[in-house]
Amino acid sequence: MTQPDTGATDPLHELLRKGARDLIAKAVEAELSTFLEQYADKTLEDGRRVVVRNGYLPERTVQTGIGDVEIKVPRVRDRSGDGVTFSSALLPPYLKRARSIEELIPWLYLKGLHRRLPGGPVGPAG
C-alpha cells in the first residue's frame, strides 16, 4: 500500500490553512498593539518612543489540526536597553504543535487508529 501524495494540494484545505494563518496573524497583531500601548508614554530624550515595532522574527511552522501553518511573529525593539521583549501568549516562542494536535494523537492511539494506518503496527486492535 502506498502513502498518499502529499505534494497535491486540496483547494479547500489550502483555503482553511490561509484562513488560519490570517486569523493567527490578526490575533498576534492585536496582542502586539496592546503590548505597545503599555509603553506608549515612555519616550527617549529626543521624543522617540522607547519600545517600537521592529519587523518579524524568522518565520516558523506550527502543526495544527488542518496541517502545517507558517506563521510570523512580530518583534519589538527596546531603545532604552532595559530588555523589554514581546512574547505572544497565543504563540509561545517554542510552540511547534498546536495543543489540539497534542490532545488528539493519544486519543487516536487509544482508539486503535494507528493499527489501520499504512505503515502502522499490525496486530489485533484491542
From TrEMBL:
<dbReference type="Pfam" id="PF00872">
    <property type="entry name" value="Transposase_mut"/>
</dbReference>
<dbReference type="InterPro" id="IPR001207">
    <property type="entry name" value="Transposase_mutator"/>
</dbReference>
<dbReference type="GO" id="GO:0004803">
    <property type="term" value="F:transposase activity"/>
</dbReference>
<comment type="function">
    <text>Required for the transposition of the insertion element.</text>
</comment>
<keyword id="KW-0238">DNA-binding</keyword>
<keyword id="KW-0814">Transposable element</keyword>
<dbReference type="GO" id="GO:0003677">
    <property type="term" value="F:DNA binding"/>
</dbReference>
<dbReference type="GO" id="GO:0006313">
    <property type="term" value="P:DNA transposition"/>
</dbReference>
<keyword id="KW-0233">DNA recombination</keyword>
<comment type="similarity">
    <text>Belongs to the transposase mutator family.</text>
</comment>
<keyword id="KW-0815">Transposition</keyword>
<protein>
    <recommendedName>
        <fullName>Mutator family transposase</fullName>
    </recommendedName>
</protein>
